[in-house]
Each structure stands twice: as structure tokens, then as C-alpha cells.
Amino acid sequence: MKEQFNPIWINALASVGVEIDWKRLEASLRWERLNHRCFPSEGSELKAFNGLVPAEVKVVICGQDPYHGFGQADGLAFSVKQGVDWPPSLRNIVREYESDLQRSWPVDVLSNGQGALAHWAAQGVLLMNDVLTVREGAPGSHHDLGWQELTTGLFRALCELENPVVFILWGKEAQKKAVFVHRSDHLVLESPHPSPLSAYRGFWGSKPFSRSNDWLVLRGQSPIAW
Predict the structure, then answer these.
(1) pLDDT band for position 131 (50/70/90)?
(2) DSSP 168
(3) CA-to-CA distance for 124 and 57, rounded, in angstroms?
(4) Which of 68, 126, 171, 225 is most open to solvent, judged by the fewest CB atoms within 10 Å of its CB?
């Protein structure tokens, strides 16, 4: 797995003194895949990071773990492959998008063939989870697999960037990472997870899309075309 990881991210980990026990992580994940159906598919675990390098990141959206339904997770947090029915969390994200920005979800992105949220990633939005894999039908099942050592290290590296970054943290597991953010340099937007179980507790009306863009523009950055 390490061999498939963009070396720029490996260097970013080293810059904050983080060393990953790749053999342990790979062995744990191999056992899981041999004994259970797991998502996303093998080789897609690090897709979000391999699609961007640290200097390109403008916004980080962090959740808990991937969708646990068959064929849903595509390697980008909260996204799904083209043609896959949207899980409730994604439907809720779209609902908040339309309320926040006062416009309909862009129809043209549905035919891009790259996944529901790939157009965000292409603009510097890092769609990551606290844990990067999950067992089918069992949310939180890979919580102790070793992923958090990696994702927390990568999060710490992002917090050291000179360019301003917005950190959107959805849910309690993601919010634990806020302690690493230098708030004088970066923006932290925290709210409950968009899942139906928690969205009503404060995800609705949190306005992450407009607040992110307003802050980026104030710092001389181009906004995201959500």
C-alpha cells in the first residue's frame, strides 16, 4: 500500500515526525478483506490523497468512515460512483447545499463519470474520513485497524501548511482532529455528521459551503465552485 501512496504525502508525514506501521496496517486490512466484504474496493483506500497534493488543498471535509453499503464508497468521503443511489448522508449534504447556497444541485456533475463529489476534489477539496475502510453493514468496524495513525498524521501535516485551509469536521470522530489546527491560520467548521441519526442536531443550517467560500475570499483565495 505504501508503494501506491503519493510520495509527496509520505514526505508530509515525515515533516511532522509521523512514521506509519504500514506492515501492521496492511496485514490487518488483508485479514479483513479475506474474511469480510469491505469498502471501498482494494486499491481505492487512498484515492482522496492520491488525487491531491498538500499544496493544492483548500478545504478538508472529514467524516467518520466510508459508506458501508455494497458498491457505494468510491474512495472519496461522502461520494459515490456514478449511477449509484445516493446514501442518506449524501442526500442530506445536497439538501444543506441547496439551502445554504440557494440553488439546485448542479445537474451536469451527475454525468461526469467520476463520482458524485469528484468535481469538489478537482478544485482542492480533500474528502477524507477518520477511518478509510469499513466492513459491509458495520459502520465503525475498522475503527481499531490502524487507519487513525495515518489520517491523524496527514491531518497534522495539513495543519502546517502556509496557505489557508478550511477544515470542515462532520461528526465527533472528525472533530477530535480539531486540536491540531492552528486557528489563527486556518478555519474550523464543526457540526454533527450529516447522517439521518444526527443531522437534525445542528448539521442543518450550518452553512459550510458559503462560510468556507467567504473565508477563502477574505484571504485572497479563489472560492470553491460547489
Answers:
(1) very high
(2) E
(3) 5
(4) 225
94-124 pLDDT, tens digit per residue, is 999 999 999 999 876 655 556 789 999 999 9
The question of whether 65 is a catalytic residue gets the answer yes
Query: Which residue type sits at 192?
Result: P
Among 65, 74, 100, 130, the active-site one is 65
Query: Percentage helix, strand, coil, to 5, in the chain?
Result: 40, 10, 45
Predicted local distance difference test score (pLDDT) of residue 188: 98
Q: Which residues contact 156 (CB under 8 A, 6 or more apart)?
A: 16, 18, 180
Query: What are residue 150's DSSP bridge partners?
Result: none
SS3 state at 159: helix
Contact, 216 vs 108, CB < 8 A? no
**CA–CA dist 125, 130 (Å, integer):** 16
Per residue in 3-36, pLDDT tens? 889 999 999 999 999 999 999 999 999 999 999 9
% pLDDT > 90, the chain: 91
What are the sequence ranges of the domains in the chain? 2-218
Question: 3-state DSSP call for residue 20?
Answer: coil
Give ∠ CA 224-44-170 in degrees, rounded to 5.
45
Superfamily of chain region 2-218? Uracil-DNA glycosylase-like domain (3.40.470.10)
